[in-house]
Design a protein that fits this description.
It is built from 11 helices and 7 strands. By secondary structure, it is α+β, with helices and mostly antiparallel strands. The strands form 2 sheets. A 4-stranded antiparallel beta sheet has the order 2-1-3-7, with no helix packed on it. A 3-stranded antiparallel beta sheet has the order 4-6-5. The structure holds zinc ion.
Length: about 270
């Protein structure tokens, strides 16, 4: 975990205030700070200056954003549309042994980071028509998908539940899309990560799999943490904030192809 001094140094010299306030800490969103065993909720910030001043005073270990409040309601009026995928969902499939510990590694990311990110990207753009999709490393062993289109913020809980439900893997509702993902995601992965993919397939193939690429597609399909998308009051790690356990930066990725673990595994 980052020391208080290292945190303050990061906030003073490494934190992209303008970008964070433009994209994530917008004036109508609830912001939460966590430090030691304390939590401060129900804050909003109208400018870069007020946000920066509050963060520098409190030097929080974690910064979250939650619901969007446009009136004096108890429940939020809107909320960012975010999907969460944690490596733990692939625990039984991870090959390197890091699935037994609370960490992830570059090897796992090649299959269970890149694979689901590419499929989520295609699903959100091609099936649901969103245009501004961003991927953020969670700081530990997973990623968040932020849909930045304004229309996405206003979706009701029911609409979010329907969205999550239609993201589950199934050949039935949209066989064409699944076959497309076999060609666009699984086949290139089999070509570029052949050894990794073959090790995975060697222990996870099913008799009803058509071929290796279909089997791989089934195994790497996004496994979403539903509550993060549907809970209107669920706190979301603010991009560029620090992860409370690892101290790593919750870092936006350049795209659904970036591996944040190409380097040493994080613990
Ligand atoms: Zn691993």
């Amino acid at each position: 975990m980052a020391s208080p001094e290292a945190r303050l140094e990061y906030y003073r010299n490494g934190f992209p205030w303008e970008e964070v306030v433009r994209d994530w800490v917008r004036p109508d969103i609830e912001v939460m700070f966590k430090w030691d065993d304390q939590t401060r909720r129900n804050q909003t910030f109208q400018s870069v200056d007020t946000f920066r001043a509050a963060v520098l005073v409190r030097n929080p270990q974690q910064i979250h954003v939650a619901g969007v409040y446009r009136g004096r309601n108890v429940m939020p009026d809107a909320r960012p549309l975010v999907f969460d995928i944690d490596m733990d969902a692939y625990k039984d499939l991870r090959l390197c042994g890091c699935g037994v510990a609370p960490k992830a590694c570059a090897e796992c990311w090649e299959l269970f980071g890149i694979g689901p990110m590419r499929i989520m990207d295609a699903m959100l753009r091609d099936l649901f028509g969103y245009q501004r999709v961003r991927f953020v490393f969670s700081g530990r062993r997973g990623f968040h998908v932020w849909v930045m289109d304004d229309s996405a913020r206003s979706l009701s809980r029911e609409a979010r539940e329907a969205l999550v439900a239609s993201c589950w893997f199934s050949w039935a509702p949209d066989r064409g899309f699944c076959l497309d993902m076999v060609d666009r995601v699984a086949r290139p992965m089999l070509a570029h990560q052949r050894q990794l993919a073959e090790r995975l397939l060697a222990r996870s193939r099913r008799t009803d799999d058509q071929d290796d690429a279909s089997a791989l597609c089934r195994l790497i399909w996004p496994k979403l943490d539903k509550d993060v998308t549907t809970g209107m009051n669920h706190a979301l790690r603010c991009p560029y904030s620090l992860h409370g356990v690892t101290g790593a930066v919750v870092r936006p990725l350049a795209g659904p192809w970036e591996n944040p673990f190409t380097g040493a595994p994080t613990t």
